[in-house]
Amino acid sequence: MAIPTTLHALFEQSARRFANRPAVMDSGATLSYAELDQLADRLRDRLVERGVGIGDRVGLCLRKSADSVASILAVLKAGAAYVPVGPEVPASRNAFVFSDCQVRIVVTEEEFAGNLRSELGRHDCDAELLVLDKSGGGSGLGRLLDEVDGKHAATPAPPIEMQPEALAYLLYTSGSTGKPKGVMLSHRNAVSFVEWCSKTFQPNEMDRFSSHAPFHF
Question: Residue 136: phi, psi to the nearest 5?
Answer without folding.
Answer: 140, 115
